[in-house]
């Protein structure tokens, strides 16, 4: 089984296309990882039509990234500000 990050990246790679754009790939901007709440809210709106939203939500539930926009949620709205969960080692 893939680790959560590898699984998400594979889903993005297999999905992103001009017909099914993944917003964080199609709109590369520093706002996705900004500490500014207004910038995060602006790009988080783009996630509502994302074709990998469910996979991204699964990732953020498993890894608990403390920063950036994931699955339409800002770091502020997730309310998690500690260290991320460690990834399991592949065997």
Question: What does it look like?
Answer:
- The structure is a single chain.
- This protein is mostly helical.
- The protein has one domain (4-76).
- The chain contains five helices and no strands.
- It starts with a helix and ends in a 13-residue tail after the last helix.
- The mean pLDDT is 88.
Structure summarized in a few sentences:
By secondary structure, this protein is mostly helical. It has five helices and no strands.
Helix content: 40-55%
Summarize the biggest pleated sheet: none
> In angstroms, what separates the terminal alpha carbons?
9 Å
In total, the number of domains comes to 1
- Shape by Cα distribution: globular
Run of helices and strands: HHHHH
Overall radius of gyration = 13 Å
State the total count of DSSP E strands.
0
Low-confidence stretches: none
**Helical segment count:** 5
């Amino acid at each position: 089984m893939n680790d959560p990050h590898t699984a998400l990246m594979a889903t993005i790679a297999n999905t992103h296309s001009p017909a099914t754009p993944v917003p964080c790939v199609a709109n590369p901007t520093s706002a996705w990882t900004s500490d500014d709440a207004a910038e995060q809210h602006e790009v988080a709106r783009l996630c509502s039509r994302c074709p990998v939203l469910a996979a991204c939500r699964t990732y953020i539930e498993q890894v608990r990234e403390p920063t950036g926009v994931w699955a339409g949620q800002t770091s502020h709205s997730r309310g998690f500000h500690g260290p991320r969960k460690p990834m399991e080692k592949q065997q």
